[in-house]
Amino acid sequence: MIQGHVFIATSLDGYVARKNHQLDWLMKQNTSGEEHGYNTFIEGVDGLVMGRGSFETLLTFDDWPYSKPVIVMSQQLTEADIPPPLSDKVRLTDRSPGEVMNMLESEGWTHAYIDGGKIVQSFLRAGLINDMILTRIPILIGEGIPLFGALDGDIDLVHEGTQSFPSGLVTSHYRVAK
Q1: Hey, which of 9, 38, 99, 148 has its CA 20 to 30 A from 133?
Q2: How far is residue 147's CA from residue 87's CA, in Å, rounded to a whole number?
Q3: Looking at residue 97, what is its pLDDT?
Q4: Whether 68 contacts 50, CB under 8 Å
Q5: Residue 47 CA to its chain's centroid (Å)
Q6: What stretches in the chain show pLDDT beneath 50?
Q7: Number of domains composing the chain
Q8: How far are the Cα atoms of 20, 38, 72, 87, 119 from residue 113, in angstroms, in the given order?
Q9: Virtual CA dihedral for 60, 169, 33, 161, nearest 10 degrees?
Q10: Which residues contact 71 (CB under 8 A, 6 or more apart)?
Q11: Are 166 and 74 in contact (CB under 8 A)?
Q12: If 0-12 CB within 10 Å is exposed, 13-18 middle and 19+ buried, where does residue 169 land?
């Protein structure tokens, strides 16, 4: 059965990006020499599922950061919005979270990296997240896109561990209790 995993950074006040999806506050963090577990995490997933906002933000980067397949969930984007160099790396879908996971499982995926504030929220509401690795960045940005939003009920989490780093980053791993 396919599993959904989250590996995401938030400001200390709980935002994953500014309202305009900008990550400038994240990019200015000096974490040189620190290994926060991302490389190990990304090696363990088959690919990524993200929303339009995350995808459009990534398009502003100098280099595409992923070698794994990326599924972009969007009701608005079309194939014409995918730059030609990414046409073999990025797919669009307008399916629901459950339908996306069923599609990926039928393609042989066992571990999906779920990324982006609104997408993480929708997968959590649908009960499709198995665990989350959350890194809190020591900055307050005041407003933006929150990682967590409204839920239909409580989601119990089991704390698997926390690690702090000299840069001030704090990473916590939570498993969703089933």
Answers
A1: 99
A2: 29
A3: 98
A4: no
A5: 11
A6: none
A7: 1
A8: 23, 11, 12, 20, 11
A9: -110
A10: 47, 48, 49, 50, 90, 91, 92, 93, 100, 104
A11: no
A12: middle
Give helix 97-106 / helix 117-125 axis angle, nearest 10°.
90
In whole angstroms, give the CA distance from residue 34 to residue 30: 9
Contacts of 96-101 with CB under 8 Å at 24 or more apart are 96/126, 97/73, 97/122, 97/123, 97/126, 97/128, 98/126, 98/128, 100/49, 100/71, 100/73, 101/2, 101/4, 101/128
3-state secondary structure of 51: strand
User: Which pLDDT score is estimated for 135?
Assistant: 95
What's the confidence (pLDDT) of residue 26? 86
Half-sphere exposure of 32 (CA within 13 A, CB side): 2
Kindly state the greatest CA–CA separation across the chain.
Answer: 44
**Exposure string (b/e) for 77-92, b if CB count within 10 Å is 16 or more?**
beeeebeeebeeebeb
Q: Among the residues of 67-165, which ranges form H helices?
A: 97-106, 117-125
Distance from C-alpha of 133 to C-alpha of 115, rounded to nearest angstrom: 11
Range(s) of the domain holding residue 120: 3-176
Task: Answer for the pair 127, 133: CB distance below 8 angstroms, yes or no.
Answer: no
Q: What's the one-letter identity of residue 111?
A: H
